[in-house]
Design goal:
Residues 141-242 form the Mandelate racemase/muconate lactonizing enzyme C-terminal domain. This protein is 41% helix and 23% strand. The chain folds into 2 domains: 6-114 and 353-359, Enolase-like, N-terminal domain (Enolase-like, domain 1, 2-Layer Sandwich); 119-350, Enolase-like C-terminal domain (TIM Barrel). The two termini are 32 Å apart. The protein has helices at residues 53-66, 74-84, 93-112, 117-120, 141-154, 166-169, 172-186, 202-213, 229-238, 252-258, 274-287, 298-306, 318-327, 353-356, and strands at residues 6-21, 26-39, 42-49, 128-133, 159-163, 191-195, 217-221, 242-245, 264-267, 292-294, 311-317, 328-329, 338-339, 350-351. The protein is of the alpha/beta class. The strands form 3 sheets. An 8-stranded parallel β-barrel has the order 4-5-6-7-8-9-10-11, surrounded by 7 helices. The protein has a 3-stranded antiparallel β-sheet with strand order 1-2-3. It binds magnesium ion. Magnesium ion binds at residues 195, 197, 221-222, 247. Magnesium ion is lined by residues 195, 197, 221-222, 247.
């Protein structure tokens, strides 16, 4: 058994390559919070995309509780961390901190065993189908064309997603024009998905679903707020398009409430409680007859998603693939619409401190 010697956290804010926005939010930078765990002469890394405050929770609330614990006992560390968060509250910043540490511990355990993380977790898939995700509401037609054809024609990815619900659903005409443009750009043989980020009301989402069908859209993500479970159910019951949600799920209990009202469960390993909780969420989804789709953070999702029998796909999010290619070595390039985890110890990505230094904020 190996003693966990140190848990470190740091934060990096990286400007976007162009203004980005969706139905209910706009941003021009993204912050990655990195966790490094050290033991047995090796370092494991995990991360989340959130406030630099996540780093404070890691160093102040989590690290002192698990340093000295056995590295191999990842679930035991997870239990200690979950207990430590009781009075802080698990959803949000604390849940992201927990998730990043859990991912780092799994990575370290696999590196100590000198085996790829996907093998340690029991991979049942060799690769993970991906979909190109971006299509921000802030893009003009040229930007949308370049991005979508880059995925479909350039990288051979047969499924893409764009943002709709612009300005909280107040410019539905433009949403419809952009969906029509997207369908024209990618052609009929590419799957087209949309994400409203909770921008519509229930009645509006029902009307939008009816015109989305005319463009053969197969996936309607967060048509209404993911906190409105009754609203999600109402939209789902009225359309044959798959209604999906789950990216803001922070614990197993939320997913238990979510499963009965969606057609596919989304989960984010950097928010939901790390790899430890993601695998439980996948089992819960399977019990409801549902598949699971990974949300963003591609480099961290690849290994655990291969171990999920009821996997649908992984969101190959423009912002995060860009950052993980800049700050890590080893993020694979998709081939024939799927990405294969690196055949290297741990998750196979190597942090590049020199590349990240100029973006460091804490
Ligand atoms: Mg989304």
């Amino acid at each position: 058994m190996t003693k966990l010697e140190a848990v470190r956290a740091s934060a990096y804010t990286i400007p976007t390559d162009a203004p980005e926005g969706d139905g209910t939010f706009a941003w021009d930078s993204t912050t990655l919070v990195l966790v490094e765990v050290v033991g047995g002469g090796r370092t494991g890394t995990g991360w989340t995309y959130g406030s630099p405050a996540c780093a404070t929770v890691v160093t102040h609330d989590l690290a002192p509780r698990i340093e000295g614990h056995e590295v191999e006992d990842v679930v035991g560390c997870w239990n200690v961390m979950r207990a430590a968060l009781r009075n802080i509250g698990r959803p949000g910043v604390a849940g992201m901190a927990l998730s990043a540490v859990d991912c780092a511990l799994w990575d370290l355990k696999a590196r100590l065993l000198d085996m790829p993380l996907h093998r340690l977790l029991g991979a049942v898939h060799e690769s993970v189908p991906v979909y190109g995700s971006g299509g921000f509401t802030t893009y003009d037609e040229r930007q949308l064309t370049e991005q979508l054809s880059g995925w479909v024609d350039g990288q051979g990815i047969p499924r893409v997603k764009i943002k709709i619900g612009e300005s909280s659903g107040t410019v539905e005409d433009r949403d419809r024009r952009r969906v029509a443009q997207a369908r024209e750009i990618v052609g009929q043989s590419t799957e087209l998905f949309v994400d409203a980020n909770g921008g519509y009301t229930v009645g509006q989402a029902q009307r939008v679903a009816s015109w989305l069908s005319a463009y053969d859209v197969k996936w309607f993500e967060e048509p209404v707020s993911s906190d409105d479970l009754a609203g999600l159910r109402t939209v789902r019951d009225q359309t044959t398009i798959d209604v999906t949600a789950g990216e803001y799920g922070y614990d197993l209990a939320y997913f238990q409430r979510l499963c009965p009202v969606v057609d596919c469960v989304q989960a984010d390993v950097t928010r939901c409680g790390g790899i430890t909780e993601l695998l439980r969420i996948a089992a819960l989804a399977e019990a409801h007859g549902l598949q699971l789709s990974g949300h963003c953070a591609p480099g961290l999702h690849l290994a655990p998603l291969t171990a999920i029998p009821n996997l649908r796909h992984l969101e190959w999010f423009h912002d995060h693939t860009r950052i993980e290619s800049m700050l890590f070595e080893g993020l694979p390039t998709p081939s024939k619409g799927a990405a294969t985890p690196p055949n290297a110890p741990g998750h196979g990505l190597t942090w590049l401190p020199d590349a990240a230094a100029k973006y460091r904020v804490s």
